[in-house]
Give the backbone structure.
Amino acid sequence: MVPRAGRSGIAGVRDGALLVRLAAAPVDGAANAELIEVLAKALDLPKRSIQIVSGDRSRSKRVRVAGMDAQSVLSALKLWSSA
């Protein structure tokens, strides 16, 4: 996660992790909320289906996506980020 970016969106993969740029600052949970919004939009899921599992105060986070298996999530994010 890269907060305070020019615009929000998925920026590819770095060191085996998804790189997401967020326009929001990491203040009062704004960047975490925006991360959930970006992922929900990319995966075409409601925001309630995405939960930050660990790394709430870190740039590196682990998220849980309800309603999709890991392979489907990776495929959807690859297609979305290359569009």
